[in-house]
Every structure is written in structure tokens, then in C-alpha cells.
Amino acid sequence: MNAFSQYAAYYDNLYGDKDYDAEATFVEQLTRRYATGANSILDLGCGTGGHAFEFAKRGYSVDGIDISPEMVKRAKSRLRGLPVEVRERLQIVEGDVSRQVTATKYDVVTALFHVVCYQTSNRALKGIFEFARSALKDDGVFIFDFWYGPAVLSQKPSVRVKRVNKAGVRIARLAEPVLHADRNTVEVNYTLFVVDEKTGRSREIREVHEMRYLFLPELDSLAHSVGFELVETGQWLSGDALNMDSWLAYGVVRAER
User: Fold this and answer.
1) What separation in angstroms does the CA of 187 have from each of 59, 62, 179?
2) Other CB atoms closer than 10 Å to residue 210's CB: what's the count?
3) pLDDT number for residue 1
4) Residue 3 confidence (pLDDT)
5) pTM higher than 0.90 for the full model?
6) Per-residue confidence band for 6, with pLDDT thresholds at 50, 70 and 90
7) Span 25-53, mean pLDDT?
8) What structural domains and CATH numbers belong to the chain?
9) What does the pLDDT average to over 153-159?
């Protein structure tokens, strides 16, 4: 069972406040800096299509891939509501980004909303970088976000509660994290309390999402091991230098020259 088996049904409700437009704009700025003239994107761990749709709206040809059949199903359902000219630039498929191969070459590969952090084993982490390298044109770039290790250890994960009420569905999500410093991961124990206000029915969902935080020397070594060079890191969305408060970070890698 993957991490989004039951969670997927409420994913878009929970992240309805996520600014996909601003995030796509930030990625596009990085793309213009390192891959001038790019027009094709492979979006790894595309989920329900939030980033992929934004890229397609900007004129890019986009292929999205996600390991969760539930998420892919929801992405395809949402895709049908897009304008035809946007829909024609999109394709969403199911697959494991840490084990995938493709003969198609792209200008840009992305892995956003902590997809890299879900690759908790060394094998899986190297696998997603290998896939990105094999899928890129020689002058392409891989852009990803990640949890920055020094900030995670400095701030420490804490219990959080999120409440949303959308389309007659009321959700309270409890996130209870457990830090595993011996393996550089945070085990996030999610409990969702869901109430359908139309029927009065309620349900409780529990899922465990294990996330890996990363350090720059680790990323640099990983990049070189698959033929990449790490060309930029910073705080997600601002581009400022990383520090002990920068939990959310991004990286850009390209083929070694």
C-alpha cells in the first residue's frame, strides 16, 4: 500500500490553499536561468496534477508520473476540466519514479512538494536522480525541493493540526511526527477525521508518511554519482541562501560539463 492510498481522496481539499501558480512561476524562473528555450517538462511525483497543469497552462508540453493509482486517477479526472489546448499538452501516467526508465528526453525534470524526500532509502534516492538524468537532454536541468537537514534538526518536527471545510466535506488532519535522527527521516503519522455534512457520515483515516531530510554535501555527492553537478540551492520560493531556519529548500542540478 502506498502512502497516498486513502489520503488521495482528500488531497485536493487539504491543499486547496497551496499556491501552485506561484510555485510554477518560481520553477519557470529557474528554468529560464539554466535551460533557455525549454519547452518540455517531466514532472516526477505529479500527484493530482497541480504543478503539471500550471506548467501546461504556460505552454510547456508536460508528462506527469506518480506511483499512486488513486492520485493518477484524480489527476486524469481533473484534467478533463481543463481547456482543450492545455489538455493536449498533458499526459499523466502511473509509475515508480525511483525505478523508472524512459526513451523520451526532456528539457526539464521536476520533483516538487517533497517528492525527493519520499525516497527514504539510499537506493530509491539514487534511483530518482538516475531516472532524472536519463530523461534529460544534455543541456537540461533537474529542479526539486527538499527538507533541509540542518533546519529540520534545529527546529525539530512538531505536532500540527489542519482543518478545512470544502464542498460540504469537513476535515481535521492531525500530523504527529517522530524524528529518526539515526536514519535522517521523519515519520509523519497522519490521522484524518472526515465528516460529510450532507449525509452526516464520518470516517477516520490513518496513514504513515516517512520523509527523508537532506544535507548539501550529501546532495552534491549524489548528484556527481549519476553524472550531475549541483549548480544552485536556496530557500524555496524566495531563492535566499539556506540557513538554520530554511526547512523548505530547492536544488538545481544539470549534466556535468
Assistant:
1) 38, 32, 6
2) 17
3) 44
4) 67
5) yes
6) confident
7) 97
8) 7-148+214-255 (3.40.50.150), 151-212 (2.20.130.10)
9) 97
Q: Where does the pLDDT of residue 62 fall: very low under 50, low under 70, confident under 90, or very high at 90 and above? A: very high
How far is the C-alpha of 245 from the C-alpha of 248, rounded, in Å?
A: 9
Q: How many residues does the chain have?
A: 257
Q: What is the DSSP string of the chain?
A: --TTTTGGGGHHHHTTT--HHHHHHHHHHHHHHHSTT--EEEEET-TTSHHHHHHHHTT-EEEEEES-HHHHHHHHHHHTTS-HHHHTTEEEEE--TTT---S--EEEEEE-SSTGGG--SHHHHHHHHHHHHHHEEEEEEEEEEEEBHHHHHHH----EEEEEEETTEEEEEEEEEEEETTTTEEEEEEEEEEEETTT--EEEEEEEEEEE-B-HHHHHHHHHHTTEEEEEEEETTT-PPP-TT--EEEEEEEE--
pLDDT at 167: 86
Grid cell at residue 248: 523548505
